[in-house]
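Our consortium's second objective concerns turning raw sequence data into structural hypotheses that experimental partners can test. To show how far this objective has progressed, the report includes one record in full. It was chosen at random from the queue rather than selected for favorable results. The single chain below, 201 residues long, was entered without modification.
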Amino acid sequence: MDRQPSRKELTHERIVETAARAIRRAGFQGVGVADIMREAGLTHGGFYAHFDSRDALLVEALERAGRDSAARMAQATAPRRSRGASPLRALVESYLSEVHLRATEQGCPVAALASEMPHQAPQVREAAAQRVHALVALVQQALPAAAPRGSAEAVASQLVGALQLARALGDNAQGKALLTRTRQALLTQFDATTPSADAMS
């Protein structure tokens, strides 16, 4: 029989889940312990019963954000794969989608936090680096076997950069057009099932 989580464990998870959403919405610097506890419906004084420091919370929040984002991406790619899209097309279309453009609280933590990651404490930077490695690994799995060495890093960089720029432009025609053009460019270059520009002309 599975053990039921304790009240303290459930509270801990609620704090981490709240922080995972908050850091993607407001960034590392925009989130304080008091804010997280208030949003989780808890008192500030209870924080240190669960975490040694704010950085310890950020590490767990990054890990949780990574797991949640991976699950959402798998859910988004599955229908595309079932319709015959290649793994790379399904990933690129899901990552550079209008849904992901708007889903700042549930989206990729790398895109949400990359510019702030180098300025964090060492343990937070390490957790952030793990999120980058996980994204590159996800792209590597989706790429065709014949893709040149280093393609995963290049594609991951373009995915993150395009999403960041589109969000900077906003959930509007400009932001959506940037995503569309980047999708087309990536698939033309890396997806063997996408006709080349010459073939389409």
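The partners drew two points from this record. The domain at 53-193 is CATH 1.10.357.10 (Tetracycline Repressor; domain 2). Confidence is low (pLDDT under 50) at residues 196-201. Both points have been shared with the crystallography group to help prioritize constructs.
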